Amino acid sequence: MLIQLLAEDPLAFFLIVLALVFALVLHELGHAAAALYFGDDTAKRMGRLTLNPLAHLDPLGTLLLLFVGFGWAKPVPINPLRFRNYRLGLFVVSIAGILVNLVLAVLAALLLKALFARFPGEVLAAFQGANTMVGSLALAVYYFASLNLVLAVFNLLPIPPLDGSKILQSLLPLRWHRLLWELERYSWLSFLLIVTVLRDPVHQVIAATQRAFLDLFF
After folding, report:
1. Which residues fall within 8 angstroms of residue 150, CB to CB, at 6 or more apart?
2. SS3 for 83?
3. What is the pLDDT of residue 69?
4. CA–CA gap between residue 35 and residue 20 (Å, rounded)
5. CA nearest 150: which of 208, 76, 216, 63?
6. To the nearest 10°, the Cα dihedral for 49, 50, 51, 52?
7. Long-range contacts (CB closer than 8 Å, 24 or more residues apart) made by 52-61
8. pLDDT at residue 110, as a whole number
């Protein structure tokens, strides 16, 4: 887990924590901006159309990301009934944060490739425990790419209130939507299942995606 990096390379740890905050903020900002584009200013009126981390970070979700390997920020409040196009708006707003994390993961992977091409010895040494400025930066970029990928895959899970559940909802018949919105009230149960019964399957899915992602770029 990321927290282990604190003892191994404190500089890399603090760099990635800053980058992680940035990733979480941009994920939620993506939802808020997409909602505003489709005609719902709920998030804007509630102060969520901002880069201020205090408006977006969820203490428990952030701690779990550091200690468990997956987590979340505060969900952006939306009112889908205000979307100009309800079904399309629900789909785009729900997937917007995921796309932000995927773009950040790809950019970080490309930066890591560039660092390795320029400083191959220092980058390889960093992954073997040596601490250098370039090595710490490479580790931070690696974890940044990995955690953005985790955020994207985790949020794709079709479990309320994660984004994946709303993406699926946007594709289902309208007569089911009222029931699905009601399930949002039991989000605490979903997270309880994720960190207990579903923890290992979720880890396996995320690990497989990370391996495929790394194979693609490296």
Report:
1. 65, 69, 70, 206, 210
2. coil
3. 63
4. 23
5. 208
6. -130
7. 52/25, 53/21, 53/24, 53/25, 56/24, 56/25, 56/28, 56/29, 57/21, 57/24, 57/25
8. 95
pLDDT band of residue 34 (cuts 50, 70, 90) is: very high
Are the CB atoms for 164 and 156 separated by under 8 Å? Answer: yes
Backbone angles phi, psi at 136, to 5 degrees: -65, -40
Amino acid at 69: G
Q: Which residues are catalytic?
A: 28
Contact 25, 33 (CB under 8 A): no
> Between helices 199-217 and 133-156, what is the axis angle to 10°?
130
The domains of the chain are located at 2-217
pTM for this model (two decimals): 0.85
**pLDDT for the residue numbered 188:** 67
Residue 152: exposure state from Cβ atoms within 10 A (0-12, 13-18, ≥19): buried
Mean pLDDT score across all residues of the chain:
86
Decide: helix, strand or coil at residue 150.
helix
Question: pLDDT tens digits, residue range 83-125?
Answer: 999 999 999 999 999 999 999 999 999 999 999 999 988 888 8
